[in-house]
């Protein structure tokens, strides 16, 4: 594999490529040997710049992030690139990010995943995080926690995975795909390293009131399915967390249709 450069993926959805903060901030940083992949999940193409020196793929069926990520992994394997960095379209990447990541990956091939710090626009810390703290009111102190990060900004060392396997679980095409991925890393004792770099992320899940009903259901049922699969012994703890969430959202006057979904999750629904 090519150790001098790596691949970068930007996933688009209903945003012109030229206006994507990720594209605007990454393009000037690309080095010789780097390979940019743009995966467009929009109903109609959002490509409004010349597709020169990068791979563009349009998937109008929008089968999800897992498909886009696995596509990029396959492209990297075909071109011999060892490292893959993933970005959402609305991630703002600081100047010098590529330089810092390049230094980090040059110094160690033992790392499986590099994750930066990610904050929301108001400075709220978003990533990395402990999965168990995000899901449960109380998690047993004696049990090992799982370090995780949002997908955007993470860099994968593809040489640490088998070349014939898909890395991302298409059973979770959008929400909780990152949780499932980091649970896998933990199970396989793979090394996750944190970078002293901060990215800024816009997040559609930050306000349930403005989220579409379909998007909210996708998030809530995926969360319930994830907990059922990976933490069956803590279902009651999780349901307590959902009830507290419901009470908080009730005070915020979130739509009844969304409160109803939370009640369904407490009742055991996962899809």
Concise summary:
This protein is an alpha/beta fold. The chain contains 8 helices and 11 strands.
Order of helices and strands: EHEEHEEHEEEHEEHEHHH
Number of helices: 8
The residue fraction in helices comes out at 25-40%
Q: What gyration radius follows from the Cα positions, in whole Å? A: 19 Å
- Share of residues in strands: 15-25%
**Strands, count:** 11
Overall pLDDT level = 92
What's the shape?
globular
Main beta sheet, described? 9 strands, mixed
Ranges where pLDDT stays below 50 over 5 or more residues in a row are: none
Structural class: alpha/beta
Termini separation comes to 40 Å
Describe the structure.
- With about 270 residues, this protein is α/β, with parallel strands linked by helices.
- The chain has 8 helices and 11 strands.
- The chain has helices at about 20-25, 65-80, 95-105, 130-135, 175-185, 215-230, 235-250, 255-265; strands at about 5-10, 35-40, 55-60, 85-90, 90, 115-120, 125, 130, 145-150, 155, 190-200.
- The strands form 2 sheets. Strands 1, 2, 3, 4, 5, 6, 7, 10 and 11 form a 9-stranded mixed beta sheet that branches.
- β6 (about 115-120) and β7 (about 125) form a beta hairpin.
- The longest helix is centred in the last third of the chain and has 18 residues, at about 215-230.
- It is globular, with a radius of gyration of 19 Å.
- The termini are far apart.
- The mean pLDDT is about 90.
């Amino acid at each position: 594999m090519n150790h001098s450069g790596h691949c970068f993926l930007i996933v688009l959805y209903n945003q012109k490529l030229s206006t994507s903060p990720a594209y605007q901030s990454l393009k000037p940083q690309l080095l010789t040997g780097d390979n940019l992949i743009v995966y467009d999940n929009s109903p109609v193409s959002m490509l409004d710049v010349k597709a020169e020196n990068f791979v563009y793929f349009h998937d109008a069926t929008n089968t999800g992030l897992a498909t886009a990520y696995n596509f990029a992994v396959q492209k990297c394997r075909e071109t011999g690139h060892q490292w893959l960095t993933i970005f959402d379209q609305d991630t703002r990447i600081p100047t010098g990010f590529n330089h810092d990541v390049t230094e980090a990956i040059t110094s160690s091939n033992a790392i499986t995943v590099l994750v930066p710090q990610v904050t929301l626009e108001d400075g709220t810390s978003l990533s990395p995080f402990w999965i168990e703290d995000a899901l449960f009111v109380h998690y047993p102190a004696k049990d090992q926690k799982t370090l995780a990060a949002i997908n955007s900004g993470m860099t994968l060392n593809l040489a640490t995975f088998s070349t014939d396997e898909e890395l991302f679980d298409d059973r979770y095409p959008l929400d909780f795909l990152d949780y499932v991925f980091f649970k896998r890393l933990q199970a396989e004792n793979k090394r996750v390293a944190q970078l002293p770099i901060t990215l800024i992320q816009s997040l559609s899940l930050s306000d349930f009131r403005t989220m579409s009903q379909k998007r909210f259901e996708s998030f809530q049922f995926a969360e319930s399915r994830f907990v059922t699969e990976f933490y069956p012994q803590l279902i009651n703890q999780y349901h307590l967390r959902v009830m507290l969430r419901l009470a908080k959202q009730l005070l915020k006057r979130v739509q009844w249709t969304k409160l109803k979904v939370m009640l369904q999750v407490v009742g055991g629904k996962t899809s």
